[in-house]
Design brief:
single chain, alpha+beta, seven-stranded antiparallel beta sheet, five-stranded antiparallel beta sheet, disordered N terminus
């Protein structure tokens, strides 16, 4: 739903002399500018993490650092671009210190004693100030995940215990000052990476991409005038706030609690628990994480910036995509998170794998709100899944990394089955083609297929996971593996069954076959020729499985998503595997 579909509502929400048609045009123009930034970055990158997985996100912000528009990139990045900029403006670089032609970069999660900055060290943020007639009127921001920025292991993988092991941390610094590249800053960054050629290309691409917004914004201001454009900025935020409050008001008032485990298989002293109380009153909601366990000596701790981002993401899902995504959506929300806990990391806590907690926050909020608004939430999804291996290329002698943010099954909703094989929720990265990874690194992929019977049964079935298998052809291989939901399965809603869990197998079918004891572990040494097989979790189901239409069950069996055995056990439907004729057991 676009603003143009609700012109009366928009007219009531705007301020000054902004008409709804102009407001809609400006809104879409701002989104297009953010999209252009991201597309240019992707086209010019050489790291597979960017050019294939599209692990980058752009935003347009006002002069206070408030979000105006964004590209549809990984949600955990999008929501933190503005949070980090506001921290920089408040504590290190006030607005008057920014000049035309400046580009500021930062990757430090800790600024001014808090964790309201970068998401983790591999995610560099770049900001360019936007001027019109000599006045600062906003910023463009671009976050990019870079392949390697130092750290105790390549690509900052493995089980680090403190932030100092996670590579070079750069405070907010002008890498371009008044249009002049500060080469010494670039040299410092490149001196702290195992992949200097890749990082140099991608960082310079990031700097160039974020800077192109200036000409686009200038053209927009020339067309509509500075006064009307600034009125549009305010009107957009006010409109999104109003629509968000309207949607929140439809949820029943009350207090709703839920908890979720992390490291549920006992790895690294787990399980540890995230706890949440959601307080809904009128048009406002409070998310109180009091009772969540303290931060641990491990990389899963979430900076406050990413905790806020995960909550904002869920609320965008709850309130609907018809509301323009900007700072106004956040105004009715209050978040309480005690410093020094898993959801508000304090230095020197390691945070590289904060997505383990962030994915659990999504299920945590959904689980709490399932009691208040079951038709607006979804069952649990596969969680955070990483599968990365770094090896020595026998031809070049270089250390290289390959892998992906692994897809699994998403939870079902009150209206649809969960999505099969997708990098879910706050990750939402593309799946890199096998052929591209085989070009990048010495690896041979053997399997990528749907994993039968992994989606939780329900009136609407949870999405299924996948089986991914590859053989390592390079030398001195090391596996960095992360997977959730191996013991505490992805839960269903309203009578839906849980999805299946995940596991890792080395040398499947061989004499030396072994299953890794923990779903999340330290760097695992392997041998040339070993195979890695990853079974990813499926999503939880929604509603009573016996209410699923028989034709949907037959189609699932035909597609290999549900076996004949599970169709009978979980759904009470007997399917002939030859003819696909079906009948219910109770008929």
């Amino acid at each position: 739903m676009h603003l143009s579909e609700n012109l009366d509502d928009v007219a009531d929400a705007v301020t000054g002399n902004v008409d709804p048609v102009t407001l809609e045009i400006v809104r879409n123009a701002l989104v297009a500018i953010a999209q252009r930034i991201t597309r240019r970055m992707i086209r010019s990158a050489i790291s597979f993490i960017v050019k294939e997985m599209e692990d980058c996100s752009a935003s347009i912000l006002d002069a206070k650092g408030q979000l105006l528009a964004e590209e549809a990139g990984p949600p955990i990045q999008l929501n933190t671009v503005g949070i980090c900029l506001q921290t920089i403006l408040k504590h290190t670089m006030p607005p008057e210190t920014w000049k035309p032609g400046d580009i500021v970069i930062v990757n430090d999660p800790y600024i001014a004693g808090e964790s309201l900055a970068a998401t983790h060290t591999n995610d560099y943020l770049a900001y360019s100030p936007l001027f019109f007639d000599g006045q600062l009127i906003g910023f463009s921001g671009l976050m990019v995940h870079h392949l390697d920025i130092g750290g105790m292991n390549m690509a900052t993988r493995g089980w680090g215990t403190e932030i100092y092991q996670e590579g070079l941390r750069l405070p907010a610094v002008k890498v371009v000052s008044a249009g002049v590249l500060q080469k010494q800053i670039l040299e410092i960054v490149l001196n702290n990476t195992r992949t200097p050629a890749t990082l140099e290309n991608d960082l310079l691409s990031q700097i160039a991409s974020v800077g192109i917004a200036q000409s686009d914004i200038h053209s927009l201001f020339q067309k509509y005038g500075k006064k009307q454009m600034l009125q549009c900025f305010d009107a957009l935020l006010d409109f999104s706030e109003r629509r968000t409050r309207d949607e929140i008001s439809r949820i029943i008032d009350g207090e709703y609690e839920h908890q979720e485990p992390v490291l549920d298989d006992g790895a690294q002293g787990g399980p540890h628990y995230l706890r949440l109380k959601v307080i809904k009153k009128g048009s406002e909601m409070t998310f109180d994480f009091t009772g969540t366990d303290p931060q641990i000596s491990g990389p899963i701790n979430s900076p406050l910036a990413t905790t806020l981002s995960a909550v904002y993401y869920v609320m965008r899902c709850i309130t609907g995509s018809g509301i323009p995504s900007n700072e106004g959506c956040k105004r009715p929300l209050k978040i309480i998170a005690e410093p020094g806990t898993l959801v508000n990391a304090r230095k020197p806590a390691a945070v590289y794998q904060r997505m383990v907690v962030c994915h659990s926050i999504v299920d945590l909020v959904m689980g709490a709100l399932a009691k208040a608004a079951p038709d607006r939430v979804m069952a649990d999804s596969c969680g955070c899944l990483y599968n990365f291996t770094y090896v020595t290329n026998p031809t070049t002698g270089n250390r290289v990394l390959f892998g992906e943010v692994v897809p699994g099954g998403l939870g079902a909703t009150a209206f649809n089955d969960g999505i099969n094989v997708m990098a879910c929720h706050v990750t939402n990265c593309h799946i890199p083609p096998m052929e591209a990874l085989e070009i990048e690194a010495p690896v041979l992929y053997r399997r990528r297929e749907f994993q039968t019977d992994t989606g939780g049964a329900g009136r609407y079935r949870g999405g299924v996971g996948q089986v991914l298998e590859y053989q390592i052809l390079g030398e001195q291989p090391m596996l960095a593996h992360t997977s959730q939901k191996s013991v505490s399965l992805p839960q269903g809603i309203e009578g839906g069954f849980p999805g299946d869990g995940g596991r890792w197998i080395i040398n499947r079918g061989g004499e030396d076959e072994r299953t890794l004891p923990y779903a999340i572990g330290d760097v695992e040494p392997l041998r040339t020729g070993d195979t890695v097989t990853h079974h990813t979790p499926g999503g939880g189901g929604y509603g009573d499985p016996r209410q699923r239409p028989i034709e949907s069950i037959v189609e699932d069996v035909r597609a290999g998503l549900v076996s004949v055995t599970m169709a009978e056990i979980q759904y009470g439907v007997v399917v002939d595997p030859r003819t696909y004729e079906a009948r219910r057991l109770d008929t």
